[in-house]
Q: What sequence folds into this?
């Protein structure tokens, strides 16, 4: 049985999961959009997002759970009233999305594998590797040949100048600048070592 790692406040995590029994999670453009809307509702208040990618039957997010002080300030709560289990926010996200999909497509039961997967990121060398791995997932799985053509990842938002809730400047800081960020994404990615570290 897979060991469940508790999600702690003020820590970086790679959050990832897939559809139960390999089922699709996303069926059309509006289902991708709806998932992201729910993500904004449930996760944005308690986490900073650095990169993400949605594919038909799985997803990846690189996030940092906010500190107790940050969360209490956002919700205007006393520190002792802050929810110390941010994993509940992810459960609310997945449950809300699954209920909507089940109703729309007349299906029943679980949609996501449970428990959802999480990996604490403590080694700074993995930040860049994870961003590259997450953004290159659509190429790795054959959904596209060019990152610019895939709309369901944070890659386009990071190289854009448009307003975003992503931690764009911090991500670009890991790569020094936008030019190096783009160039790094066109180099060969060592997916095997990342997946071994993630135990995918």
A:
């Amino acid at each position: 049985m897979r060991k469940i790692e508790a999600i702690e406040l003020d820590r970086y995590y790679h959050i990832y999961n897939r559809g139960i029994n390999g089922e699709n999670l996303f069926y059309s453009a509006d289902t991708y959009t709806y998932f992201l809307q729910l993500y904004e509702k449930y996760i944005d208040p308690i986490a900073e997002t650095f990169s993400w990618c949605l594919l038909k039957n799985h997803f990846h997010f690189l996030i940092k759970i906010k500190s107790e002080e940050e969360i209490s300030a956002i919700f205007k709560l006393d520190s002792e009233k802050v929810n110390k289990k941010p994993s509940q926010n992810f459960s609310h996200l997945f449950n809300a999305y699954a209920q909507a999909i089940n109703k729309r497509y007349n299906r029943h039961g679980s949609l996501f594998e449970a428990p959802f997967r999480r990996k604490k990121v403590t080694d700074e060398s993995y930040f860049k590797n994870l961003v590259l791995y997450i953004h290159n997932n659509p190429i790795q799985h054959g959904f596209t040949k060019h990152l610019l053509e895939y709309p369901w990842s944070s890659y386009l938002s990071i190289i854009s100048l448009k307003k975003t809730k992503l931690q764009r400047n911090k991500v670009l800081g890991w790569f020094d600048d936008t030019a190096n960020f783009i160039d790094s994404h066109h180099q060969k990615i060592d997916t095997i070592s990342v997946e071994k570290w993630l135990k995918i």
Notes: The chain has a mean pLDDT of 90. Strands lie at 12-18, 47-54, 58-65, 117-120. The chain has one domain: 12-198.
